[in-house]
Design brief:
Belongs to the class-III pyridoxal-phosphate-dependent aminotransferase family. It comes from Anaerosolibacter carboniphilus. It is an enzyme of class 2 (transferase). With 419 residues, the protein is α/β, with parallel strands linked by helices. A seven-stranded mixed beta sheet has the order 4-12-11-10-7-5-6, with helices on both faces. A four-stranded mixed beta sheet has the order 1-2-3-15. Strands 13-14-17-16 form a four-stranded antiparallel beta sheet. Helix content is 38%, strand content 17%. It is globular and about 60 Å long. The chain has two domains: 159 residues, Aspartate Aminotransferase, domain 1, CATH 3.90.1150; 242 residues, Aspartate Aminotransferase, domain 2 (3-Layer(aba) Sandwich), CATH 3.40.640.10. The longest helix is centred in the middle third of the chain and has 19 residues. Helix 6 links the parallel strand 5 and strand 6. The structure holds 4'-deoxy-4'-aminopyridoxal-5'-phosphate. 4'-deoxy-4'-aminopyridoxal-5'-phosphate binds next to helix 5.
Length: 419
């Protein structure tokens, strides 16, 4: 039973293991936008396993291809090429922005960001990095070193030399315009002083863990221009935003900028681990030493990813994410509550900034109350933000308007109950 798994979790996991909920549901099944626990209670999933299950849980059309591949050949490594891996690389060249063409396959988002950072060093022959406060890029040594969220950092044990943080263009105290100017000025100053030692800047096009922070439309264009003047590459981390999540195939398309290197993971395998970093012909040439990830581009994951891309296209999930995102945003904006400070984001990547009204309870505690009560009512929603006080809505892109209607109606009631 569930008591058993909670006791075992306390006994055998590291104390650092983070869970939502005082009493996490024991999920035993999933079907598209729905989840089921051990008591057969049904939930509508509005978090998609942190933006992974864009095509829905146990999607039968995708699973058919995965199972066929499992029965065929499960694993070879890149030493012996398989058809799905090569076909996937070709398909990615078609969907990725600009003249980004060559792909290196890995397994997790952290690993792909780490690879992208190695590539930037090889290409520019420089070694420093710029990153934004509030960003999250992974859990490996270097990717955690460029992660700008204090709660995730193992501060005493990270790389500090030649890592430069600039403030993200978002601040509770400044207008978007002012925050953008401040961020660009800091970037300019860092580049002027240290540009000779910096190989790349990493950014998420919308900060996920940082609290669903989208930048002003022309921010990244201005960033790119400044970087180019100092031969510094732009690495865009689309781990959480990629594959239709924000109403475009890739979130960077909202900003009209083509990055030098693009990193993807999560939704590409719809639950089967696979990640990528991709770049142009010219930059890829710099990575010519023998290098391969044992599981990267594994045929089961690659075949699943091909099926995912096919499913997204066939079912117009990018356009759906855009339309349903607008609908959900409008519904969230109609909820009246003194605790809602702001609704942010685009497509089906939306955040609700919670603001406490008195000293006796924190915004993070109110956020937890909302998550807990919504879970009891059959809705799994997420949370993020520097202070863990942003309610996050990132459902599978196959969600329906009806699900949105019932979720927002329940959310309105839950918010009314909180005093
Ligand atoms: N980048 C971003 C933007 C992420 O959201 C995450 C994970 N939440 C990562 C990188 C790390 O990915 P992984 O956990 O697969 O290593």
């Amino acid at each position: 039973g569930p008591d058993n798994i909670i006791t075992k979790r306390q006994e055998y996991f590291f104390p650092a293991t983070a869970h939502f909920y005082k009493d996490p549901p024991q999920i035993v099944g999933g079907s598209m936008q729905y989840l089921f626990d051990h008591n057969d209670k049904k939930y509508v999933d509005f978090f998609a396993g942190v933006s992974v299950m864009n095509c829905g849980h146990s999607n039968p059309e995708i699973l058919e291809d995965t199972i066929k591949q499992l029965n065929n050949i499960q694993h070879t490594t890149t030493v012996y090429l398989t058809q799905p891996m090569v076909e996937l690389a070709q398909k990615l060249a078609e969907v990725l922005p600009g003249d980004i063409k060559r792909t290196f396959f890995c397994v997790t988002g952290s690993e792909a960001n780490e690879g992208a950072m190695a590539l930037a060093r090889l290409y520019t022959k420089k070694n420093g990095f710029i990153a934004l406060t509030g960003g999250l890029h992974g859990r490996t040594h270097l990717t955690l070193s460029v992660t700008g969220i204090p709660m995730w950092r193992l501060d005493d044990h990270l790389v500090k030399e030649n890592i430069f943080f600039i403030e993200r263009p978002y601040s509770a105290d400044l207008s978007y315009e002012e925050a953008m100017e401040k961020s660009l000025q800091q970037l300019d100053a860092v580049l002027k002083t240290h540009g000779n030692n910096i190989c790349a800047m990493l950014v998420e096009p919308i900060q996920g863990n940082g609290g669903i922070i989208m930048y002003p439309r022309d921010y990244l264009k201005k960033v790119k221009t400044l970087l180019e003047a100092h031969d510094v590459l732009l690495i865009v981390d689309e781990v959480q935003t990629g594959y239709g999540r924000t109403g475009k195939m890739f979130c960077i398309e909202h900003y009209d900028v083509v990055p030098d290197i693009i990193v993807t993971a999560k939704a590409l395998g719809n639950g089967i681990p696979i990640s990528t970093f991709s770049t142009t012909d010219e930059i890829a040439k710099a990575y010519s030493r023998p290098s391969a990830s044992t599981f990267g581009g594994n045929p089961v994951a690659a075949q699943t990813a091909l099926s995912v891309l096919h499913y997204i296209e066939k079912n117009n999930l990018v356009e759906k994410s855009n339309e349903l995102g607008k609908y959900l945003k409008q519904k969230l904006e109609q909820i009246s509550s003194p605790f809602i400070h702001e609704i942010r984001g685009c497509g089906l990547m939306l955040g609700m900034q919670i603001q406490s009204q008195n000293q006796s309870v924190t915004s993070a505690e109110i956020t937890d109350m909302i998550l807990e009560e919504m879970k009891n009512r059959g809705f799994i929603i997420g949370k993020n933000g520097l202070n863990r006080d942003v309610v996050a809505f990132q459902p599978p892109l196959v969600i329906s308007k009806g699900d949105i209607d019932t979720m927002t109606a329940n959310l309105q009631e839950v918010l009314k109950q909180i005093v």
